[in-house]
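Table S5 (text form). Sequence records supplied for joint modeling of the two-component complex.
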Amino acid sequence: MTVPVIVALDAMGGDRAPGSVVHGAAIAMRRLPRTQYLLFGDQARLEPLLRRYKKLRERCQIRHTEERVADDAKPSLALRAGRNSSMRLALDAVAEGKADCVVSAGNTGALMAMARFSLKMFPGIDRPALANVLPTQRGESVMLDLGANIECDAENLVQFALLGEVFARTVLGQRQPSVGLLNVGSEEMKGHDAVRGAATRLRAPGSPINFFGFVEGDDIAAGTVDVLVADGFTGNVALKTAEGTARLMSDFLRAAFRHSLTARIGYLFAAPALKKLSRRLDPRGYNGAVFLGLNGIVVKSHGGADAFGFANAIGVAVDMRNNGFLDLIRDGLQRLKDLAPAPATAG
Amino acid sequence: MTVPVIVALDAMGGDRAPGSVVHGAAIAMRRLPRTQYLLFGDQARLEPLLRRYKKLRERCQIRHTEERVADDAKPSLALRAGRNSSMRLALDAVAEGKADCVVSAGNTGALMAMARFSLKMFPGIDRPALANVLPTQRGESVMLDLGANIECDAENLVQFALLGEVFARTVLGQRQPSVGLLNVGSEEMKGHDAVRGAATRLRAPGSPINFFGFVEGDDIAAGTVDVLVADGFTGNVALKTAEGTARLMSDFLRAAFRHSLTARIGYLFAAPALKKLSRRLDPRGYNGAVFLGLNGIVVKSHGGADAFGFANAIGVAVDMRNNGFLDLIRDGLQRLKDLAPAPATAG
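The corresponding structure-token record, covering 694 residues in total, follows.
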């Protein structure tokens, strides 16, 4: 492709904005030479920052607005009152075809509400899902939904499976990603109606999904499958449980190394290897939760992300765009539709 | 109390039975001097084992049966065909008042089905819940339900809160254990009807529960509350996610120490402290998942538990019995009943 990718950035969203956004774009630009940027935000604050990044300055335009969505704003209020906010204008740029994708580190709920309003859902997808990439024993997996939908039926889960599968192909570069449904056991009769109904459809002959079957909580870290599908309640609890457990282990480990003089000496010797381990688990490398299912590419960076984290989120958005995420979703939906008519006969 | 506690043991349940059961009872007996044991199982296999433990021999009786529930038996089949199994006879001993509590390391589903049939539910409790103690940043917490009930309503969650609270008091020795409901956020409007309805009832003035409010996945390892309440689907996924993440971290750590010669040297110095850490997280210390809500005390030991793990499970059962678990549940249910009539007016 020789056409440049135009990335719309909510320059005012996130704890360290606009500095982290501008610096993040400068880092991303070096890795992604065919990208151009539309920066939505306060010109008076952006111009001085851009002076430090001459090459970025040549490849970006500022779209001035003084309004921004507050981090604690209620989604409904942001939707009504934030029509001229940096977040909303960045989304509108994608809706109007002036940009190819959008990245924001702002208020998650507001971004979701505004994105649904501005971009609408992708035709054939009922609800958006929040997805993220996680480090595992075998490499990386993507998990969704992480909290956008508290209650889900079988059809929602099937759509999430497709969204996650295409994400794994376009962003993680996996050829035939395997998909698992999070459940309380691996046997076919386990779980509630939604997971069993979804499994029946995903197992049907001709399904476009490489369906592994049911997986359990410990399969997340094991990396048993490339794509983990759950309702938003379960997915959110699982993600935060994993984060909390990792933090507990790190704290216990730190305490163990402080425990005695010999342990401290041990730490000195082991430090380079331990630092390599901590880089392997660096959450910045896994920044860029994505709203999937919208009629446009929207990446949500973590609110506290620094420039490197934000650059990674830009990379996710550009990969989705360059590798034809939306076209692959359209194709997958068609193939799901063409499947044997009813779940009952298909299973 | 001077009356001895009689513990019924399913001597044939578990991967290492009957050796781990007999050895486990011998260990438990030393810690719990007023206990006596009824061993249900194959006399020809139990007698030779007991010769090694003379003191235990004096305080136990064998109830011979050659039948046992297979580890892979379907609960419904075990219920129909296992009337003379070691598991079923041990449960019946409690139901008939011949023993005070029962411990089994056998087939979980069969134990649950048989226990419900033999002991019945505690009056006022609708469903049994599976609970376990977990290590946290602040000490120990108990989490339930861990998979016995895939779908739960508000009333089930309120009952689980009471069961968990009384367990924390009688087994962990906590005075006024705090109780949290696992949810996707801490604000009152978060989550689905079941968690919000349960929160309204638990928050009501006069509630016997020290209700903290909603907690999230990362609060499990943080130890934010003493008792974590969830439906069985979410609780099961969360528990296994935590176990899987802890395993991933340990494996990464081991790889880091093998990474270079200096890292290996570092390990030698740090080994004692690291071994102390691994003892702190030793799953054997947390063995003894409990079925709560039955009209009797039933402790499920892990199927793979060794004698030390099994002894710990016996300790849990005896603590519940000695500290009046069933009386406290009766009392708590009465106080919940006496609360302001409807959740809508109480909230």
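Note: The first strand of chain A starts at residue 5 and ends at 10.
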